[in-house]
Amino acid sequence: MYNNRISAFCIISLFFLAACSNQPQTTQSDIETPVSVRELKPGSISSFFNTSGTAQATFSVDLNSEMSGLYQLQTNPRTGRPFKLGDAVNKGQLIIRFEDKEYENNIRIESRQLTLDIAEQESVKQKELYEKGGVTLTQLRNSEVSATNARYELENANLSLQKMNIEAPFSGFIVSLPHYSSDVRVSQGLPMVGIMDYTRLYMDINLPESAIEYIQVNQPVHITHYTLPDTLRGVINEISPAISSETRTFRGKVLIDNTALKLRPGMFVKADVIIDSADDVIIIPKEVVQTARNRKYVYIVERNMAVVRTIITGIEDDDNVQVLEGLYENDNLIIRGYATLRENSRVRVL
Fold first, then answer.
1. Strands, E, within 215-267: which ranges?
2. Does the pLDDT value for residue 278 go beyond 70?
């Protein structure tokens, strides 16, 4: 009885296994892996050395009072009110003037001008007499010396008078303007006004020793700041040939075109020094490139199949890489879903 039960169980098991073996089998080649693709088009790419630094104004000055006098802040002709912080000024524009009648009288500008006129007239007269034999060469030379001395005295007097005016030495913007009450005497040596021209900026940079063979004067630089949507243009202006033994870096200076005044002096900016670039080339995301046995490859879609393409790469940036060989324009590169693919895997493009 027991043996009959075992025989019956074996027969049922064999029947069940035979029935299962007749079910259709699902192979890996029948599975369609969902993927995303990008149709390749030519583009541009550049490789960089990244560094950072503080942007500084190329022209900056702090002017102090060179004399004591009554403080007179001048009116800005552009606004019709006294100058204030942020105002634009032109080269030679009068910003502050000191009033001091005693100082002006001691300079004696008109008297020195008359002295010069008389000395020059006498010099001309002595020259005419000398040509006629009426005076000696010594007398002629003495008259010339008198005229020269009178000219120097007038020039020095004008320089002394100029100390009463504080003018912009170059075009720029007022960045500091300490407050002094009008018509109140201020002392010599006090800070008066600070002016900056930041239409062009510069920044000192440090680059790694490994970059020294790639960096040259006049090399383009991309300047970025987190507050700016656009990239500004810069250029390498100076390079030090010496490597620091402590940091293993070398110094350089970048000039920045800030004509639109988007950057302000003192901003901490990022500088990407372009060391190589290429236009009208095939560019793909670095993340899709896979490696095996020193071979780089990617997947493309052909007839709903994943096809492996071995590639040779060139210039790289932070996110992308140039493809020198292996891919062509209009190829459909798989950019998502490639991790589980194999050669000739069936795919479904999303």
1. 220-224, 232-239, 249-257
2. yes
